[in-house]
Write a structure and sequence with these properties.
Shape: elongated
Oligomer: single chain
Helix content: over 70%
Strand content: under 5%
């Protein structure tokens, strides 16, 4: 592999890492924005939904 190929590979890797970091930063920014607006995070929504399902299951079993 020549020097040119090595630099091209490193440039491609750096570009991929930058894309991943931008994607992560966008997700984090979106999450922060939704929390700032008072909306529950995805984790909080999932937890609340699971708790509601658990209560329903307990009531149904009784």
């Amino acid at each position: 592999m020549g020097t040119k190929d090595q630099f091209q590979d490193k440039a491609k890797q750096a570009a991929e890492q930058a894309k991943q970091r931008m994607g992560n930063a966008r997700e984090e920014a979106s999450e922060r924005a939704s929390q700032a607006k008072g909306r529950p995070s995805e984790e909080e929504q999932r937890r609340a939904q699971q708790e509601a399902q658990d209560r329903f299951d307990q009531d149904y079993d009784a």
